[in-house]
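Hey all, sorry for the wall of text incoming. These are the two entities for the joint prediction.
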Amino acid sequence: MGLFSDLKDKLSGTGRPGSLVTEAAVNTALSRVIDPDLHKDIVTLGFVRNIDIQGDHVALEVNLTTPACPVKEKLKAECETELLKIPGIAHATVTMTATATRAAPTAATPVTIPALAGVKNILAVASGKGGVGKSTTAVNLAFALAKTGAKVGLLDADVYGPSIPKMVKITRPATVAGDSMMVPPEADGVKVISAAMFSTGDRAQILRGPMAGNVAKQFLTQVQWGELDYLVIDYPPGTGDIQLTISQTAPITGAVIVTTPQEVALIDVRKAIDMFKTLKVPVLGVVETMSYFVCDGCDKKHFIFRDGGGERLAREFGVAFLGGIPLDPAVAVGSDEGKPHVVAQPESTVAHAYTQASGMLARQVSILNAQNDGALEQFTLSWKS
Amino acid sequence: MIEPENIRVKNIAQTNERTLAIQWTDGRADAFDVVDLRRKCPCAQCVDEWTRARTLSPEAVPDTVRPLRVDSVGSYALKIQFSDGHATGIYTFQMLRDLAAQIH
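and here's what came out:
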């Protein structure tokens, strides 16, 4: 049997004449490389593509589930090590690519919201109460994901206090296409929609609950989001009407909870987590803002509030701690000048912290999608009598 | 192993004139009588919000009632628009699974 399959490999393998190395040998070598999050080898996961063997040189692609994969370099190195162990291989070229996974394959039944049909993952960024840096986190996570090459949209659903256009300079207004769908303007490649785009200046948004809910709903159903790997939604703070409307309208992949260290002690953040639990939206992790302050004089991390609150909260609820973001007056400056931190000052500690958190987030999304295999995202069934 | 709270719908179909079949992501499959679902509607018009007592009497629902359409609600529930005009019930996946467990 072994002999026969070896022979078959030699006959049908893509190994070119002159090369003794078969594709099967390459797959065997790479099956020793395990994805640390999905706990399966990369061959079984179907990540390995376009194997090309030329003499003693093998070139191939490893297609990951997210461009924001934090272990990309480590996996690449492991692949090269394993490939070079194959007798007859002296050179290995591994190219890392990525196609973001989605929560479910395209449903057999038509999706209920066509505008979201091309959106692979919808991420809710929420907090127990206001003033914890939720919008800043949503913006920086979105732009950090976009910087890795992912296609990203940003929806400011904070209908009463939309602040994203202040943090992200939008030069073009949202336009309306022929089919009465809104076309979102782009900033650094990220599609952005906010309630602030539809009102003037500092006018207060005076809306009754049902109206506010409708506005949020329209942003999901009447915007040409197109093909997106991640749609980041900046939720209003708390657990109110709008949050419920959004969660009932769109199939939310998962939620990110933003908290400050001292807010952890409060009941509000627990209520936010509980809301998502009730709505069956998995909590992907906790981001802690204002974690510490790096003094410009001594470079020491000063933990102004209690140390490790966000991490404890994450542990208590059994979710991932995505990272702690330091307090930096430049964040506010960056926000007010219309450039997200990860774009304006990519080398700063804050930008690094957000980039790391976005990698952790993308990783949690991939893990969740691997577990959720086969679930229908949205469905509609017409009854036949 | 999927945690119970993360179990979602893998497939949903009408199997006959009054049966709704759901296959769950944990592999379990349940069949529901649509008339029974209408009688067990969990909405505030059918269940007293304070006492949780059912205010809708089963006899008030004729055997001829049928869904017109079934839609997903977020990723935790479904809603059914019935031929008698009633459409306010949100049937959570958890409720449906509990309901099926009672029938078995």
